[in-house]
Amino acid sequence: MRLGLVGTGRIGTPHAEALIALPEVSSVVVADADAERARATAAKLDVEFAPDFEALLGSDVDGLVITTSTGSHPELIVKAVDRGVPVFCEKPVATDIDGTLEVIRHLEGSAVPVQIGFQRRFDTGYRTARAAVVSGALGWVHTLRATTFDQVPPAAEYIPTSGGLFRDCGIHDFDILRWLTGREVAEVFALGDNRGARFFRDAGDVDTAAVVLRMDDGALATVSLGRYNGAGCDVRLEVLGSKSNAIVGLDDRVPLRSAEPGYPAAVRPAYSDFMDRFRSAFAKELSAFVAVAAGAAESPCGPAEVLEAFYVAEACEVSRRERRLVAVDEMRR
I need a labelling partner for 170 at 20 to 30 A (CA). Which of 1, 193, 274, 298 fits? Predict the structure, then answer.
């Protein structure tokens, strides 16, 4: 199978490396708005180079992986689908709800599959916890506590186009809460603040946030988000039920330090970033897309799924700005 990848930045290059490693992939061709960056990536990875997106689409690719900045996603998705090329696109579909809805409406009736990247759905820990929920092994779930902390913040130039902490970072937690429990988020209350670099505030964003969510069955969840966790990248989820619990991300690389005397110190270094934490999940996600592009499987996460998580992220941003409890249904169009 011949696959194209557009966007050779901080996530695109690792994705290209993962594609090369898949036995079903015979060749990879890369492109980028910065043609020289794409050329350098192609030379480094020994893959093919396309001078621009149109040239890439015209090179007979069997599927397209989009890892560009969010603002370009709608146009690239639509152009590829209209050419009959299956698409994998990193989340989100668009920068806002209206843009997401526009893409979904354009795709209605199309048989060309589109998969959106929520790699936590392919992580072994999250999948194990989901199975425990579905089987009833935990009893009824009453509390979920999610944590997503970066060790260091992204580059300053990334933040103004990121969509903000809730849409860029928290959306992974909102999606996994829905996927893992099989329930929808009914309402949220969110707070956020800035203790670090000024570029977050200048972009209208926050670098730390806390969210309380009520699921539609009454279960309560909290999501803690932050860009400054010097101990390491910390992504976890605690699922607490009436019978038992399941904790995702509690392994020998979790960046937690016990204050209890005599507790053993960590042996292995903590996760450094999201790529380090989810390298295996990203590879499994792209392997799943290869099956989708080949017509051997249906898309495991279509654009409509992203829209539901986006509604939650948008409700969080409204809650933070207006300092009030927000029903997710307020965000629906």
Answer: 298
The tokens for 172 are 């992974």
- For 157, the enclosing helix (H) or strand (E) is none
Joined tokens for residue 15? 């994705």
Burial 113-125 (b: 16+ CB within 10 A, else e): bbbbbbbbbbbeb
- Six token digits for residue 238: 């605690």
- Assess contact for 241 and 117: CB atoms under 8 A: no
3.40.50.300, 3.30.360.10, 3.90.226.10, 3.30.200.20: CATH of 121-272+309-331: 3.30.360.10
Q: What is the token pair recorded at 176?
A: 């996994």
131: part of which helix (H) or strand (E)? helix 124-135
CATH class, 2-119+282-302 region: alpha beta
Q: Which residue has the tokens 């969840």?
A: 221
Decide: 214 and 159 in contact? Cβ < 8 Å.
no
Question: Could you tell me if 237 and 126 are in contact, meaning their C-beta atoms sit under 8 angstroms apart?
Answer: yes
Query: Which residues are CB-contacts of 62 (< 8 A; sequence separation ≥ 6)?
Result: 1, 2, 3, 85, 86, 293, 294
Q: Report the pLDDT value the prediction gives residue 265, as an integer from 0 to 100.
A: 84
The predicted-structure confidence for 216-263, as pLDDT tens digits, reads as follows 999 999 999 999 999 999 999 999 999 999 999 999 999 999 999 999
Q: Which residues contact 158 (CB under 8 A, 6 or more apart)?
A: none
Task: Give how far Cα 26 sits from Cα of 20, 21, 106, 114, Å.
Answer: 8, 10, 31, 21
